[in-house]
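RECORD TYPE: inverse folding
INPUT: structure tokens
STRUCTURE:
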């Protein structure tokens, strides 16, 4: 994967806030975000994946829309105020339908958890067209509170 040059280009940003994340970190499960749609990039559908090893791993999945797509993307853990805590930086990748790209290890610390809000972890995915540009910057925010009671 090469470094992407388009951080100043218009992009689609998905922010996923997961409450009760401390419980997730104690379990050996992968947790997936809700599906998010990127209308301006081939009407594709995507998901983020978080992996349990102290929430330091994050992945991106092309759910449907096209069989193969080449995009620029950046995955990050962010503070609730939007400050980037750890990032993959912008990368270029080819995605195939239902295939995970990643997981990527991000050097994260306890700063990932917001002690005031039920150990909330916020992750961010930014996507750019690899050729051309989106007509405008777009953002989607999803907030989930998950229950991990009874998981083994």
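DESIGNED SEQUENCE:
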């Amino acid at each position: 994967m090469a470094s992407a040059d388009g951080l100043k280009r218009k992009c689609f940003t998905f922010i996923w806030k997961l409450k009760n994340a401390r419980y997730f970190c104690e379990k050996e499960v992968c947790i997936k975000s809700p599906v998010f749609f990127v209308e301006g990039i081939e009407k594709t559908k995507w998901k983020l994946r978080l992996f349990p090893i102290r929430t330091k791993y994050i992945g991106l999945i092309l759910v449907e829309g096209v069989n193969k797509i080449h995009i620029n993307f950046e995955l990050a853990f962010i503070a609730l105020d939007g400050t980037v805590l750890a990032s993959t930086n912008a990368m270029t990748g080819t995605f195939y339908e239902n295939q995970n790209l990643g997981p990527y290890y991000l050097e994260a610390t306890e700063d990932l958890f917001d002690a005031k809000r039920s150990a909330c972890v916020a992750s961010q995915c930014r996507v750019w067209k690899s050729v051309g540009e989106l007509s405008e910057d777009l953002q989607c925010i999803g907030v989930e509170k998950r229950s991990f009671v009874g998981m083994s």
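NOTES: Residues 12-144 form a domain with the Apoptosis, Tumor Necrosis Factor Receptor Associated Protein 2; Chain A fold (CATH 2.60.210).
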